[in-house]
């Protein structure tokens, strides 16, 4: 893992152009830039002893006209040739501005209504990650 996981919250909609009062931003109470994920967010298996809990995420200052959001967790350095998608959630309503910790649990009711989760792969042991907006 050279650069680690990238956590991105991307807008999934055509948005109108125009000036924004503040830049779109993403934050998490559970993650810090350049720091390993806490053990509760690691995968539990294949030698990892984590809790399989997806991290809390929040975002603000979406551009006017945003229709929905998507969250993607991708490891670009995974030894697959194309990276590894750990988690995807699409169709998050534009009125939603956060996901609680554990929202990725398929047995949890904490994913917002209408949101659709892709196949969950798993978190890895001790990843460092970068939090970015717009998939950068």
Can you describe what's shown?
Residues 1-17 and 124-136 have low confidence and may be disordered. The radius of gyration is 15 Å and the shape is globular. It has strands at 5-11, 25-27, 44-45, 48-49, 57-60, 68-75, 84-93, 98-99, 116-117, 129-133. The strands form three sheets. Strands 9-7-6-1-10 form a five-stranded mixed β-sheet, with no helix packed on it. The chain has no helices and ten strands. The protein has one domain: Phosphatidylethanolamine-binding Protein (Alpha-Beta Complex), CATH 3.90.280.10. Strand 6 (68-75) and strand 7 (84-93) form a beta hairpin. The chain is mainly β and 136 residues long. The two termini are 18 Å apart. Helix content is 0%, strand content 33%.
Please state the second-level CATH architecture: Alpha-Beta Complex
Outline the biggest β-sheet: 5 strands, mixed
Going across the biggest sheet, name each strand in turn: 9-7-6-1-10
**Structural domains: how many:** 1
| Estimated share of beta-strand residues | 25-35%
Q: What's the rounded overall pLDDT mean?
A: 75
Unreliable stretches (pLDDT < 50, length at least 5) are: 1-17, 124-136
Derived from helix and strand composition plus strand pairing, the structural class reads mainly beta
Order of helices and strands: EEEEEEEEEE
Determine the CATH superfamily: PEBP-like
């Amino acid at each position: 893992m050279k650069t680690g996981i990238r956590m991105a919250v991307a807008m999934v909609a055509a948005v109108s152009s125009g000036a924004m009062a503040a830049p779109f931003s993403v934050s998490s109470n559970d993650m810090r830039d350049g720091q390993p994920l806490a053990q509760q967010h690691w995968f539990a298996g294949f030698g990892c002893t984590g809790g399989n809990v997806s991290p809390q995420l929040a975002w603000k200052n979406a551009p006017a006209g945003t229709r929905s959001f998507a969250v993607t967790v991708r490891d670009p350095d995974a030894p697959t040739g194309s990276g590894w998608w750990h988690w995807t959630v699409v169709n998050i309503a534009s009125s939603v501005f956060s996901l609680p910790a554990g929202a990725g649990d398929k047995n949890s009711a904490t994913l917002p209504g209408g949101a659709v989760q892709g196949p969950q792969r798993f978190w890895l042991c001790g990843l460092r990650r970068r939090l970015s907006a717009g998939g950068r």
